[in-house]
Structures are given as C-alpha cells and as structure tokens.
Amino acid sequence: MILTITFKPNLVSETALTTAERIGTASELVLYQRGSSDHVSFHDAGIPAVNFIRRETGTASLEPFYHPPLDTIEHVSAERLKEACDLVGASVYSLIRK
User: Fold this and answer.
1) Half-sphere exposure of 15 (CA within 13 A, CB side)
2) 69-98 mean pLDDT
3) What is the C-alpha separation between 52 and 85, in angstroms, rounded?
4) How many of the other CB atoms lie within 10 Å of CB of 7?
5) Which of 18, 51, 70, 87 has the CB geometry, 3.0–4.6 Å to 39, for a possible disulfide?
6) pLDDT mean over 69-79
7) CA–CA distances in Å: residue 80 to residues 35, 77, 83, 95, 97
8) Could you report the per-residue pLDDT of 9-63, keeping only the tens digit for each?
C-alpha cells in the first residue's frame, strides 16, 4: 500500500508504481490516503512523500508483529525487506538517472 496525505499521486508514488511494474514487484501497490506516520512531516515541508505499508491480502490487517513489543529483527521477513529495498533502490536510481 502507498499512503499519501492527500490521496493524490506525487513524484514518489508515481515513481514507485512505475518501478514496481518495471521490476515486477510481487506485492500489489495501491494508492491510499492516510496521514499519521513519518511521511507527514515531509509532506508538510513540501517534500513529496509516501508511507509504504504492507497489509494482509483479504483482511487489510497489519502484520502481527507491527509495533508491539515483539516487533524485533527476528520477526522481519527477509523476503518482504528485500522487496521493499528493491523497490526503493530502483525508484531512487530511476530518479537520479534523469
């Protein structure tokens, strides 16, 4: 899920969606509005920003270890972390190439 403050695409969301299609990101990326996370302060400063978050298919629930005391490194999915790093890295690369 790609969360923006305004529910409108911006440079970050457009780049991520284009990159996800180009590199074949496994997760479906959906633009959604939400304004309560670290991306808000960037948006408020005029910097295009989004919050990437994974919701479980069918329920839209957050992952079970999201922000409770058990949210520790051993509960991080290596596959999901790689997918996020590939998406962000390829997106940044596509921007700096221009």
Assistant:
1) 19
2) 91
3) 11
4) 11
5) 51
6) 89
7) 23, 5, 5, 23, 26
8) 899 989 999 999 999 987 777 766 666 788 888 989 999 988 887 777 777 777 7
